## 1
Amino acid sequence: MVLLFINAGRKYSKINKNIYGHFSEHLGRGIYNGLYVGENSPIANTRGIRNDVVEALRHIQVPVLRWPGGCFAEYYNWKDGVGTDRKRMVNAGWGGVVEDNSFGTHEFLDLCEQLGASAYIAANVGSGTPREVSEWVEYMTFSGESPMANWRRENGRDQPWKVEFMGIGNENWACGGHMSPEYYADVYKRFETFVRNYDSNKIFRVACGADGNDYKWTETLMRLAGKRMNGLSLHYYTMPAYYETEPYPWERKGPAVGFDEASYYRTLRRALYMDELIRRHKFVMDQYDPECQVSIILDEWGTWHEAEPETNPAFLFQQNTMRDAIVAAVSLNIFNTHSDRVHMANLAQMVNVLQSVILTEGEEMILTPTYHVFDLFKGHQDSTLIESYVQQDLTGTEEAQVPALHVSASERADGKIHITVVNLSVDEPQQTQLLLSGKTFSTAEARYISGDMNSHNPFGQPPQVEIQTMLPIVIKDNSLFIDLPACCVAEIILD
Ligand code: AHR
């Protein structure tokens, strides 16, 4: 029997809803086909944006969406994507395909409005200019008379939009210009100066942060520019490598489906490494910013497997299994537990690219196991982190040991306790006793997904992974007994 302790009497930080954010780039079929099909498509749409996809995304309460990249952002000129005369360009980073710019600023901000999500724009720093960024902000957010605001009106939008977040560059240590942290700190300050707050729109400025465990980057940015930023990003992708200390193990990517148990546990081990990464970056940031004024913005995270056979490898299209669901769940638990400093995270990427919540093929749409994790976790949005602890053994292989269970818990505004618990074991169910202190409860509801580690939702076939309800739950003396199936993500709500 595993013991799971939840203490509602110990309250910590607010779990910012933006931890449940997403990212979508002009890459492969992420935007075109996935989100946007154009007004003349036979697929049901509103001003070109797929209705089925919007409806599914509204259900998981997408709080914020990052766009247009990624590396694409670093050669994007926003002026090519507004008005009636849109430039056709080459998407040089992602397969050399034609980008016709039919999805641009108006379409992105329309999508955000349809989703009820905040906009997070990634500005071009690598090949763009401060003037371009400054004019983009003026175009989107200024209500008065100005060349850019007038141009927006000519293009059909009278009122300005609300733009809450702006990233000043993307991966400027690599595809965003191969800069040193010292050089980028100066570039950041130069660009940031021209990101103006018009009217009541206040833009939260995010500086480009580290690649995984590059703590020197974080230290340099905090020291040289920490006072001029609201957030510092962090990028980390999960791939099945052997040791946590290795640099990015590109050569060790394996198939998204049809992997073995060793690869499963190595992948989970890599996902759990996120905790150490955040701890260490926090430690560095604390030296310069003990008051937590600068947020960690984990604006790219998720699994990165080999592209599906017979698809364009540059399109990064991968299936999504229970393994991805477990990675998502432990990552979100980790973000919750670091919500004092982690204030946003954006899964890469929302539709049809890398670890997606939705996959499409023509008019068909699939909700992936990762989608269901976001559904099971949505109750944490804007709730208060409370203490949780699991008394248990490790599981896994000799090479990659992982905890059997992984948990986070929060108290919602309505007073309900929301617990998300993951059984990482591929084959061992866990008989679990959950003990709540600091509050009494009389009802419990639980929903979960589980399956074989390779279970997924294939096109043209019934789904293998769907949310199920756990019944009945035995409650006794402010505790409950629950059997968690192997390879499972569950949500438990106590009231
Ligand atoms: O998400 C795919 C790519 O990964 C992004 O364009 C880039 O920022 C990162 O390296």
Note: The chain has a mean pLDDT of 96.
## 2
Amino acid sequence: MISKVLIANRGEIALRVLRACKELGIATVAVHSTADADAMHVRLADESVCIGPPPSRESYLNIHQIVAACEITGADAVHPGYGFLSENAKFAEILDAHGITFIGPTAEHIRVMGDKITAKQTAQELGIPVVPGSDGEVKPEDALEIARKIGFPVLIKATAGGGGRGMKVARTEADLEEAVSTARSEALAAFGNDAVYMEKYLGKPRHIEIQVMGDGMGNAVHMGERDCSLQRRHQKVWEEANSPALNVEQRMKIGQICADAMKKLKYRGAGTIEFLYENGEFYFIEMNTRLQVEHTITEAITGIDLVHEQIRVASGGGLSVRQEDIVFSGHAIECRINAEDPRTFVPSPGTITHFHAPGGLGVRVDSGAYQGYRIPPYYDSLIGKLIVHGRTRVECMMRLRRVLDEFVIDGIKTTLPLFQDLIGNQDIANGDYDIHWLENYLASKTDA
Ligand code: ADP
């Protein structure tokens, strides 16, 4: 059993995990950098430990300090949240060696899914549909032959990739040589590894991901999908569940494929299997072996607390639900509220002079922000998530419009006005968008 959890994260997700622990009667330890001494998760935790100066490398990514904080406080488990050390296999191993439970999958599964080529091969072996492409790494001299086999346009991707870097499209044979060499040099600069592979380039896909949860002993369930097509620079901005593009049969079919794959893998914990979706087909792109920012919309439509489940399976207690117990009810939308200029997306750290979160039926605000809180400039700019639930998509959108009008965050710039714009857009109202929609929309506004 887990009796004390150290939360190796900050911001809204640290608070999210803390809330789940409190509900389960588990003691909490917050860790924080000197820049976060006043943070909400630090104030609400049972104990807190300062683990270093503001730069993440020296604090939230500092494994030694975090392990030491566990030993000082007697924490018997660590929840890594998302980002930071959440997909660091070495961290999971080190905790294991110290007899501390990592609330997440095995180090081996983190490693397999962390390498793009191994992840894709594994997915394919597990029966998950993947994007047609090269079998593994592509050498420049073989690129043309492989591209002809796949068919143009093709996408060159870094095997060590992340954040969309080291990715180049070749639309025709004439573009190929340059695309391969640019992708390789970008990959070398960003990841210290110039290996690339090749995939068919999909023109207008949606991003649809499946939430899975396994007990590590061969039981696994899926909790439906999230549509995260509305992105800017590969960063998700607005997510919804269910996807406006899927019907029940499609949902249950792809969901079951993913759940079956996780059973075969004996996967433990929460995971997300990400797909591009085009013309009725799913194409695996990657698996995230952690809780995701947008897990909240899955919670809204299933009523299941994913962090409770993570803690249960990490302590060997198994899943609290069987597949047939999981019922999808209504529609949920999450808006990511960033401390950024809503037009230029330049970060806007500073002090929040006035903060009023909306409320009412079907409304959830996950945020560590409060009146007087000073947003430090060192970390990512997500300051809160607004999640709205309704019985239908239309009801959810109506509620979102009302809630956006109620939300007040003064003293800094935020992306709230962007959502006020989107809620009035006809394509959004129709659910008619792909992964390029938002960037095109933003570009059209700047031109106008
Ligand atoms: P990263 O880890 O660098 O974020 P991903 O494989 O997750 O790389 O891809 C990031 C994004 O790039 C996807 O969300 C999608 O927008 C685009 N992308 C990836 N693969 C393809 C593809 N085969 N065709 C078209 N777009 C793609």
Note: The CA atoms of residues 178 and 296 lie 42 Å apart.
